Amino acid sequence: MRIAAVVAVLLLCACGGGQDRSNSDGAVEQELAKAQSAAAASPDGKVTICHIPPGNPANAHEITVGEPALGAHIRQHGDRVGHCCVEAGAACTADADCCQDQAKLVCNADPASPTGRSCGGVG
Fold it and tell me: What is the C-alpha separation between 88 and 82, in angstroms, rounded?
């Protein structure tokens, strides 16, 4: 019994300790709806998400999780459905690096960026 309790505590700590890391309730609910739709459309009920590790957002990476785990990932880590991408103004190397959730972004020349390019609007 004590082993199970220790494992549960370790898993809880590894997944952010149950802290809400979301930016806004509306955005979280919208992302949850997207996740549930993607899970329903998936033959195995699994969804690829961009996992943002608590305390280490620079190590964001793609993972595939089942529908039961989506809520915790979205609410507690701020994870999002789909592949990892960079937001407007962030360094990129190709158009495919740029997020497309809000507007069409492309990887434009940007001498101030570490890669010499950053995601921004078309034109």
Answer: 17
Question: What's the pLDDT score for residue 80?
Answer: 87
Spatial separation of the C-alpha atoms in residues 34 and 85, rounded to whole Å: 17
> Dihedral of CA 66/67/73/78: which sign?
positive
Q: Does 75 lie in the same domain as 26?
A: yes
| pLDDT for 70 | 92
> Which pTM value belongs to this model?
0.59
Residues 6+ apart with CB under 8 A from 84: 50, 60, 61, 62
- Cα dihedral across residues 80, 71, 54, 63: positive or negative: negative
Task: Identify the domain containing residue 102 by its residue range.
Answer: 86-123
Rounded to 5 degrees, φ, ψ at 111 are -60, -20
119, β-bridge pairs: 107
- Number of domains comprising the chain: 2
Q: Is 72 helix (H, G, I), strand (E, B) or coil?
A: helix
H or E segment and range at residue 70:
helix 67-72
